[in-house]
Write the structure tokens for this entry.
Amino acid sequence: MAAARPTTVAYFSMEICLEQAIPTYSGGLGVLAGDTLRSAADLRLPVVAVTLAHRQGYFRQHLDAEGGQTEAPSEWQPESRLPQVPQTVTVQVEGRTVTVRAWRYEVRGVTDGVVPVFLLDTRLPENSEFDRTLTDTLYGGDSRYRLCQEVVLGMGGAALLDAMGYGEGTQYHINEGHAALLCLHLLERRLSGRQPWEASVEDVEAVARRCIFTTHTPVPAGHDRFTGELTREVLGDRAATLDSLKLWEGTDLNMTRLALRCSRFINGVALRHQQVSQEMFPEFPIGAVTNGVHAVTWTAEPFRRLFDKHFPEWRRDNNYLRYAITVPIEEIRDAHRASKAAMLDEVERRAGVRLDPRVFTIGFARRATTYKRTDLIFQDLDRLRAIAHKVGPIQIVYGGKAHPKDDNGKAMIRRIHEAGRKLGDAVRVVYVENYEMTLGHLLTSGSDLWLNNPMRPLEASGTSGMKAALNGVPSLSVLDGWWIEGCLEGTTGWAIGDDYTLPSDPAGDVTELYYKLERVVVPLFYGMPYKWGEVQRNAIAINGSFFNTQRMVMQYLQNAYVPGSGADSLLVQPTA
Ligand SMILES: *Cc1c(COP(=O)(O)O)cnc(C)c1O
């Protein structure tokens, strides 16, 4: 066999959830990015990642008694815990030269694999006061700030990798449009000396051979768009390449379209999301790689011990989770009881409310944004009270931040508090503030049921239900995103509604939600505990074994990262 020269995959993402103490993410996109890198490290793939340092983080959420949200920065100092990369680079922003340095974080796998993450940082004395803030705040500031950040991420990040010696063989995985300007960097480098107007479609094709693009949302606000005027101000002369190659959308710069034009492999993050994205962008061939979660990270300690006892290989090879199908139900239930106790203890510690471990506990945690309809279950409080009274007691634990500028999301959090007050002891409701990685871990592992009721078809994938599945927590969810693939009715959980191809009918969804709770889910929980245990077990064996990032990364490897059919590009980390 010819000596394989390993290809490096450079994974670019505006947010990456590395660990609890590093607040460089806001939600699902960042958690997915972190889980992807954790699995790449487990698999010893030659992947490196680029993101921003986000010294001010996203924000710390505080909720008052009425559910009013206030925000505080969640600062961290990269220099206090990470080594600095020796190389620095410069980028042009609004005609100024901005110096970019980077901190090196290492994601360590369960094997000896390591994935380096470079966190870009412009807080340097030689930069202007404004430029020093460019790598501070995730999704803060106005569109000018955002575009400047994206120049640092895409063009600064790509330049840094050049300076570090990642050569021509490097492949670029653009995780959501924020990093699409790296394509402009690659185009310029290819032109090397030729004028922008000499750039050709072949040049775009050459760049596309090196890029992979994953789109993450069918919500229009999730696709960055900047006016031509702003783009020309920020990019200066470099906008000429966009002109000559007609990379504009009308007069605007659409980051998604830029990435679509400059990538050879494009995918949505679940089968349904592929279909919806294909309708949004009919001129590009869009594939599907369904998301996952990092199994070891999101499995709570009681289940880790259980899996270690029955199939210790699961940490290295997540396929072994399939063998959960033979684990005795009693052991599944004992492990879940321990996870639930841990969650209730922490809820008491954080929110000062002691919930009853015998009571059926619904978990709901995600970004508080309109389409997620966090308060759907409170549409008819009498109906909910009646179900709890007649079929069995119910309590609900919530978590989730609203974006600081999202007044509708904030109002939704207040409505949940109000509903909780009205329900009192009939259905106890606790909203735990500051949803982040640790809280997500507790809620997805300690609840009895994971509820999700977004407006179809806006949930690209969703991943918290996958975390729940790994912990033997079944989902009750609208058929959208991953749940279309994961729901085997009555076996791995339950669906709200049936025809996933139709847009949501809000009234119908509410009716179906109450119906399923009253007639199917709550009666099963209280009346047939063994059968309930079987659903828990199926959630692990059937869904946990598939909806993990190890399977997902292997799919990227097989379908996207290995260019053409060349066996010489088989990806392995060089051995030391
Ligand atoms: C898993 C996770 C998310 C994403 O969950 P979705 O179901 O995809 O919305 C967001 N935030 C945190 C803290 C998480 O742990």
